[in-house]
Amino acid sequence: MRTNLADIRQEYTKSGLRENELPGDPLSLFSRWLQEAIDAEVDEPTAVIVGTVSPEGKPSTRTVLLKGLHDGKFIFYTNYESRKGKQLAQNPYISLSFVWHALERQVHIEGTAAKVEPAESDEYFRIRPYKSRIGARISPQSQPIKSRMQLMRAFVREAARWLGKNVERPANWGGYAVTPTRIEFWQGRPNRLHDRFLYTLQPDGEWEISRLAP
Ligand SMILES: Cc1cc2nc3c(=O)[nH]c(=O)nc-3n(C[C@H](O)[C@H](O)[C@H](O)COP(=O)(O)O)c2cc1C
Question: How many domains does the chain have?
Answer without folding.
Answer: 1
